[in-house]
Amino acid sequence: MAKISYVEKENAPDMVCRNISRRQFIRVVGVGGATVVVIGVLGCGEDESQSLQPQIGCFDVGSPNDYMEGDLLYFPDAPLLVGLDTAGFYAMSAICTHLGCGIGDDVNEVTAEGPILCSCTASIFSRTGDILSGPAPLSLQHYRLELVDGQLVCDTSVEVPSDTRLAVV
Ligand code: FES
Q1: Which end of the chain has a smaller Cβ tally under 10 Å, C or N?
Q2: How far apart are the CA of 39 and the centre of ligand 1, in A?
Q3: Residue 123 beta carbon below 6 angstroms from any ligand 1 atom
Protein backbone atom coordinates (compact mmCIF):
# COMPACT_ATOMS: atom_id res chain seq x y z
CA MET A 1 0.00 0.00 0.00
CA ALA A 2 1.27 3.43 -0.93
CA LYS A 3 2.41 5.74 1.80
CA ILE A 4 2.63 9.46 1.49
CA SER A 5 4.91 11.88 3.14
CA TYR A 6 5.38 15.59 2.85
CA VAL A 7 8.72 17.28 2.52
CA GLU A 8 8.04 20.81 3.64
CA LYS A 9 10.08 23.63 5.04
CA GLU A 10 7.16 25.05 6.94
CA ASN A 11 3.88 23.70 8.22
CA ALA A 12 0.86 24.18 6.01
CA PRO A 13 -2.65 24.02 7.41
CA ASP A 14 -3.98 20.49 7.53
CA MET A 15 -6.64 20.50 4.87
CA VAL A 16 -8.11 17.68 2.84
CA CYS A 17 -9.92 18.32 -0.41
CA ARG A 18 -13.07 16.31 -0.82
CA ASN A 19 -14.97 18.19 -3.48
CA ILE A 20 -12.86 17.62 -6.50
CA SER A 21 -13.42 19.08 -9.91
CA ARG A 22 -13.54 16.76 -12.87
CA ARG A 23 -10.06 15.92 -14.07
CA GLN A 24 -9.04 17.70 -17.19
CA PHE A 25 -5.50 17.76 -18.40
CA ILE A 26 -3.28 17.58 -21.39
CA ARG A 27 -0.80 14.74 -21.16
CA VAL A 28 2.63 15.50 -22.43
CA VAL A 29 4.04 13.04 -24.87
CA GLY A 30 7.25 11.17 -24.23
CA VAL A 31 9.81 11.32 -26.99
CA GLY A 32 12.93 9.20 -27.03
CA GLY A 33 12.93 8.58 -23.32
CA ALA A 34 12.58 12.27 -22.55
CA THR A 35 9.39 14.12 -22.02
CA VAL A 36 8.28 16.90 -24.29
CA VAL A 37 6.14 19.42 -22.54
CA VAL A 38 3.43 21.36 -24.22
CA ILE A 39 3.68 24.89 -22.97
CA GLY A 40 2.25 27.93 -24.58
CA VAL A 41 0.72 31.27 -24.24
CA LEU A 42 -2.49 33.17 -24.34
CA GLY A 43 -1.83 36.28 -26.31
CA CYS A 44 -2.63 38.73 -23.55
CA GLY A 45 0.06 41.24 -24.39
CA GLU A 46 -0.67 44.42 -22.52
CA ASP A 47 -4.43 43.75 -22.43
CA GLU A 48 -5.21 43.01 -18.80
CA SER A 49 -8.76 41.99 -19.73
CA GLN A 50 -7.26 38.74 -20.99
CA SER A 51 -5.31 38.07 -17.83
CA LEU A 52 -6.20 34.84 -16.07
CA GLN A 53 -7.31 34.68 -12.46
CA PRO A 54 -6.34 31.84 -10.12
CA GLN A 55 -9.20 29.54 -9.20
CA ILE A 56 -9.55 28.68 -5.53
CA GLY A 57 -10.51 25.09 -4.85
CA CYS A 58 -9.49 21.48 -5.06
CA PHE A 59 -8.43 20.12 -8.40
CA ASP A 60 -7.98 16.47 -9.28
CA VAL A 61 -4.65 16.31 -11.08
CA GLY A 62 -4.57 12.61 -11.78
CA SER A 63 -3.12 9.46 -10.34
CA PRO A 64 0.53 9.29 -9.37
CA ASN A 65 0.75 6.56 -11.98
CA ASP A 66 -0.13 9.10 -14.68
CA TYR A 67 3.26 10.75 -14.21
CA MET A 68 6.79 9.89 -15.17
CA GLU A 69 9.76 11.67 -13.67
CA GLY A 70 10.32 14.87 -15.60
CA ASP A 71 6.66 15.30 -16.55
CA LEU A 72 4.99 18.66 -16.28
CA LEU A 73 1.26 18.46 -16.94
CA TYR A 74 -1.13 21.32 -17.62
CA PHE A 75 -4.60 21.54 -16.04
CA PRO A 76 -6.53 24.39 -17.64
CA ASP A 77 -9.42 24.50 -15.16
CA ALA A 78 -7.25 25.82 -12.36
CA PRO A 79 -4.98 26.73 -14.23
CA LEU A 80 -2.13 24.64 -12.84
CA LEU A 81 1.09 22.96 -13.85
CA VAL A 82 1.87 19.76 -11.94
CA GLY A 83 5.27 18.14 -12.14
CA LEU A 84 7.22 15.19 -10.86
CA ASP A 85 10.92 15.50 -10.17
CA THR A 86 13.35 13.35 -8.24
CA ALA A 87 12.03 14.64 -4.90
CA GLY A 88 8.33 14.16 -5.63
CA PHE A 89 5.22 15.86 -6.97
CA TYR A 90 4.67 19.62 -7.01
CA ALA A 91 1.91 21.92 -8.20
CA MET A 92 2.17 25.55 -9.25
CA SER A 93 0.21 28.30 -10.88
CA ALA A 94 0.15 28.41 -14.68
CA ILE A 95 -0.38 32.17 -14.60
CA CYS A 96 2.55 34.42 -15.44
CA THR A 97 3.41 36.82 -12.63
CA HIS A 98 3.90 39.69 -15.07
CA LEU A 99 0.50 40.51 -16.59
CA GLY A 100 -1.27 37.27 -15.87
CA CYS A 101 -1.01 35.46 -19.18
CA GLY A 102 -1.59 31.73 -19.17
CA ILE A 103 1.57 29.74 -19.71
CA GLY A 104 0.14 26.35 -20.49
CA ASP A 105 -2.59 26.81 -23.02
CA ASP A 106 -1.21 26.79 -26.48
CA VAL A 107 1.67 24.97 -27.97
CA ASN A 108 5.34 25.64 -27.85
CA GLU A 109 7.66 22.73 -27.42
CA VAL A 110 9.90 22.62 -24.42
CA THR A 111 12.19 19.70 -23.80
CA ALA A 112 12.33 17.91 -20.48
CA GLU A 113 15.28 20.04 -19.52
CA GLY A 114 13.86 23.21 -20.98
CA PRO A 115 12.24 26.18 -19.31
CA ILE A 116 8.65 27.40 -19.36
CA LEU A 117 8.15 30.28 -21.70
CA CYS A 118 5.63 33.10 -21.57
CA SER A 119 5.60 34.69 -24.97
CA CYS A 120 3.33 37.55 -23.90
CA THR A 121 6.39 39.53 -22.94
CA ALA A 122 9.05 36.83 -22.96
CA SER A 123 9.46 35.89 -19.31
CA ILE A 124 11.15 32.56 -18.70
CA PHE A 125 10.59 30.24 -15.74
CA SER A 126 12.38 27.07 -14.75
CA ARG A 127 10.40 23.84 -14.78
CA THR A 128 9.90 24.27 -11.05
CA GLY A 129 8.59 27.81 -11.52
CA ASP A 130 11.61 29.89 -10.58
CA ILE A 131 11.86 33.13 -12.51
CA LEU A 132 14.87 33.00 -14.82
CA SER A 133 14.23 36.07 -16.93
CA GLY A 134 11.71 38.92 -16.61
CA PRO A 135 9.83 41.12 -16.90
CA ALA A 136 7.83 38.84 -14.61
CA PRO A 137 8.81 39.95 -11.09
CA LEU A 138 8.12 36.74 -9.21
CA SER A 139 8.41 32.99 -9.51
CA LEU A 140 5.26 30.89 -9.99
CA GLN A 141 3.23 30.27 -6.84
CA HIS A 142 3.23 26.69 -5.56
CA TYR A 143 0.20 25.05 -3.95
CA ARG A 144 -0.38 22.13 -1.63
CA LEU A 145 -0.82 18.65 -3.07
CA GLU A 146 -2.53 15.82 -1.23
CA LEU A 147 -3.31 12.22 -2.01
CA VAL A 148 -7.08 11.64 -1.71
CA ASP A 149 -8.46 8.19 -2.49
CA GLY A 150 -5.42 7.44 -4.60
CA GLN A 151 -5.68 10.64 -6.63
CA LEU A 152 -3.43 13.67 -6.51
CA VAL A 153 -5.44 16.70 -5.47
CA CYS A 154 -4.20 20.27 -5.51
CA ASP A 155 -5.66 22.70 -2.99
CA THR A 156 -5.12 26.16 -4.43
CA SER A 157 -6.25 27.80 -1.19
CA VAL A 158 -3.00 26.68 0.46
CA GLU A 159 0.23 28.24 -0.77
CA VAL A 160 3.44 26.36 -0.01
CA PRO A 161 7.16 27.05 -0.49
CA SER A 162 8.50 26.19 -3.93
CA ASP A 163 10.63 23.33 -2.58
CA THR A 164 7.60 21.51 -1.15
CA ARG A 165 7.17 18.04 -2.59
CA LEU A 166 4.66 15.25 -2.11
CA ALA A 167 6.55 11.98 -2.12
CA VAL A 168 4.46 8.91 -2.88
CA VAL A 169 6.26 5.69 -2.03
S1 FES B 1 2.56 38.22 -19.08
FE2 FES B 1 4.31 39.35 -19.67
S3 FES B 1 5.89 37.86 -19.71
FE4 FES B 1 4.15 36.75 -19.11
Answers
A1: N
A2: 14
A3: yes
